[in-house]
Write a structure and sequence with these properties.
Layout (H helix, E strand, L loop, with lengths): L2 H24 L4 H8 L4 H34 L5 E2 L1 H17 L5 H4 L2 H11 L4 E2 L1 H20 L5 H21 L5 H21 L2 H9 L4 H5 L5 H18 L8 H16 L3 H10 L3 H10 L3 H21 L11
Antiparallel strand pairs: 1-2
Helix pairs in contact: 1-16, 2-3, 3-7, 3-9, 3-12, 3-13, 4-6, 6-8, 7-8, 12-13, 14-16
Length: 330
């Protein structure tokens, strides 16, 4: 083969590698991601860890923002309380049913001791509680659910109990708020909606599942073919994180969180010349292309990544053995 052709192919390979380096350098990533990456962890792991920590910080900011309102709500609402008795009764009924099914007569045998202990703690709460106590309990439940869903051994039955209790408690709080005067009721609805939307956008099932199942490959899981819902949920979560941390000492920028996740994802996709070439073929799939464009809405980024991948594929095809001709290595 002519030396000029080999030289051209080498030049293209070099340009692709330089393009990758340049693309990564231009991504404005989250400082925490950069710090974790600097410790020698993989880019995808660093992105997942930084995203998880950002969500936790945002939830704390959300809680700090609404806590003062709930703390004074009892006094403002002239001691309107939250009726906890139906929740306590439901927990006791589940304990009794489990005990009846067990040969030992103990609920812990039919369920698990951990679940039984949780149900007993719920059943021990008597009568009514004030809104401040209800809100703190709900926040604690949501925090525990978050931790358990990310644990290696996911206790599904316990998570079910905690989710059910949190939902029942929220419903009882909304029910009790109907006794407030109109002005306070309107204020309660605004704060409650703000809190619920914050929790919903920070902890969508799509994102939570990805962080729990694939902590070291979170980008690959979130952004695989056809995962447009996951991508949109991730963008919403990042934007909510920015809003909630805006007034804190260390605000988090949504673009930096998303760029960190993009970096982690691309670090795998562009890890080799062959995988870079494969991206061009993947982009020929309309379903993949839609997901890809949702993840990289910047037209310039789309063009750069497409250009690099097509160049890599062109060279890869040129190097492929042809029947009757010797293969060559560049």
């Amino acid at each position: 083969f002519p030396v000029t052709i080999l030289a051209q192919e080498q030049a293209v390979k070099k340009a692709v590698e330089e393009g990758k380096t340049n693309f990564f350098t231009k991504l404005d990533t989250d400082p925490e991601f950069n710090a974790i990456l600097g410790q020698g962890r993989s880019a995808d792991y660093a992105a997942g860890a930084a995203f998880t920590n950002a969500i936790d910080r945002a939830f704390k900011s959300l809680k700090d923002e609404v806590d003062p309102f709930y703390t004074t709500l009892g006094q403002q609402g002239k001691n309107v309380a939250v009726d906890f008795s139906p929740i306590r009764k439901a927990a006791q009924q589940e304990l009794d049913a489990a005990a009846a099914m067990s040969s030992t007569g103990k609920a812990g045998s039919a369920l698990s001791e951990e679940v039984a202990r949780e149900l007993r703690s719920i059943a021990d709460i008597k009568g009514t509680i004030d809104f401040s106590q209800a809100h703190q309990y709900r926040s604690n439940l949501l925090g525990r659910i978050r931790e358990l869903e990310q644990s290696e051994v996911r206790p599904t039955n316990l998570i079910r109990i905690l989710k059910s209790t949190a939902k029942q408690l929220e419903d009882k709080m909304d029910e009790g708020s109907k006794l407030f005067d109109p002005a306070l009721k309107k204020q309660y609805d605004t704060v409650s909606q703000f809190y619920k939307e914050g929790v919903s956008e920070l902890y969508p099932q799509t994102v939570t599942r990805a962080l729990q199942k694939n902590p070291e490959r979170v980008g690959e899981h979130l952004f695989r073919v056809g995962n447009e819902t996951e991508i949109l949920d991730t963008i919403k979560a990042a934007r909510r994180i920015e809003t909630l941390t805006a007034k804190t000492a260390n605000p988090i920028k949504s673009d930096q969180i998303l760029n960190s996740l993009r970096y982690g994802y691309l670090d795998g996709v562009l890890s080799t010349f062959e995988s870079t070439a494969k991206l061009a073929s993947d982009l020929d799939n309309p379903k993949f292309a839609r997901s890809f464009n949702a993840l990289f809405p910047d037209k310039n980024q789309q063009e750069v990544l497409r250009g690099m991948s097509i160049a890599a594929r062109t060279i890869q095809r040129a190097e492929a053995p042809v029947a009757g001709l010797p293969s060559r290595t560049v």
